[in-house]
Amino acid sequence: MTLTFAPDQPDALPLYAVAVEDLDDVLASLGEQAGAWVKAVGFKAEAGQACLLPGDGGPVGALAGLGSAATRKRTRFALASARAQLPDRVFRLETELTGTALEEQCLGWLLAGYQFTRYRGTETPMARLIAPEGVDPHRLETIAAGEALTRDLINTPANDMGPDELLAATQALADQFGAGISVVSGEDLLTQNLPMIHAVGRASPRTPRLIDMRWGDAGPLLTLVGKGVCFDTGGLNIKPGASMGLMKKDMGGAATVLGLAQMIMALDLPIRLRVLIPAVENAISGSAFRPQDILTSRKGLTVEINNTDAEGRLVLADALALADEEKPDMLVSFATLTGAARVAMGPDIAPFFATETSDAGAVIIAARKVADPVWELPYWEPYEKMIEPGIADLDNAPSGGMAGCITAALFLRRFVTQTPNYMHFDIYGWNPAAAPARPKGGVGQGARALLAALPELLAL
């Protein structure tokens, strides 16, 4: 993967990033012959278009379309589309873009260099870009590398990405940055009072575990919790085949927090970081937990199981209860949790919930700046009764099908009672179709928004 900027070099070709409304001025500056060529090949600076400028013996530059003012609202990372259309050369960006708009396009260019080649051989050489004035190349390269880690983990099929392999990936990250790591696994989950993680994972021959990584020794404490269900059959409430087809991505929350953790550590932010990942496989066997079972959680709350396919909130609940006992300055969970979130928001937008209005506002503002779309949904108090079955404290799968994303978030919030600042992201973690800078497959959501908001959230 080519996720870094190229070193400066004198023979770099100019790459003109052009908006539709600026095309005539740019063509005038290039001269009559170049202008005639660009018009002849039909380049109109529409988003995703690219055009080489010919010279004696090879190209002398290129144009990349950014679209019109109207289409720019509908297209993220327009410059990224040009990268695959350009030859394997080094380019120098020529553009009127500045500030966050320039950063977005440069990050998109880097992300367009992502290639998942573990199962199909060599990478395709790609055009490279010199970091333009006005961007922080180290920060953008760090973000791109963290996103690539998230994508790699999600894209890896479950036969090669079970709880063991997820632990290995976390251990490799810890080793890279000098973080500490501890693990509670198997029957020790019961003796260490993590019973719902054990219940969900016990049917699989792949041992369930809670992974706990810590980094940093000064500053406010940020705890990230990521759902690590490495494959989800649905358990005894088995999923139909069409619904099971993408369940390798059900550890997308864990993949996202690991990618975000890499960004935080590589940028050496002045915080203490804790990452908790309940890593399990929701399988089917004689030892599987059952519908109508009542589980007792780490928090002491009892949970009636009305659907074994609503397992993610169970493993998260124990991990959140553990995190809450330490009273971190900020607690954030990421999970591919509900289909209801996808129905409401589609695959692009990650809904999130925040216990503090100011935290939500900071994330919303940051998300817009870094082109990482999120949308706040409410912890709607009147729906609390929907998760109270009567026979136990909580119901893991309320009947009726209404407000499934909200009731799941309310369920998780019951396990965070000592930490005022808690946020939950219900992500999809997958691009169903290729888009600029985002090939079909695994993708991080919400991580860049949270990273950009941390200075305000933690008063850094």
UniProtKB/TrEMBL annotation:
<dbReference type="GO" id="GO:0004177">
    <property type="term" value="F:aminopeptidase activity"/>
</dbReference>
<comment type="similarity">
    <text>Belongs to the peptidase M17 family.</text>
</comment>
<keyword id="KW-0464">Manganese</keyword>
<dbReference type="Pfam" id="PF21337">
    <property type="entry name" value="Peptidase_M17_N_1"/>
</dbReference>
<dbReference type="InterPro" id="IPR043472">
    <property type="entry name" value="Macro_dom-like"/>
</dbReference>
<keyword id="KW-0378">Hydrolase</keyword>
<dbReference type="InterPro" id="IPR048816">
    <property type="entry name" value="Peptidase_M17_N_1"/>
</dbReference>
<keyword id="KW-0031">Aminopeptidase</keyword>
<protein>
    <submittedName>
        <fullName>Leucyl aminopeptidase family protein</fullName>
    </submittedName>
</protein>
<keyword id="KW-0645">Protease</keyword>
<feature type="domain" description="Cytosol aminopeptidase">
    <location>
        <begin position="307"/>
        <end position="314"/>
    </location>
</feature>
<dbReference type="InterPro" id="IPR011356">
    <property type="entry name" value="Leucine_aapep/pepB"/>
</dbReference>
<dbReference type="InterPro" id="IPR000819">
    <property type="entry name" value="Peptidase_M17_C"/>
</dbReference>
<dbReference type="Pfam" id="PF00883">
    <property type="entry name" value="Peptidase_M17"/>
</dbReference>
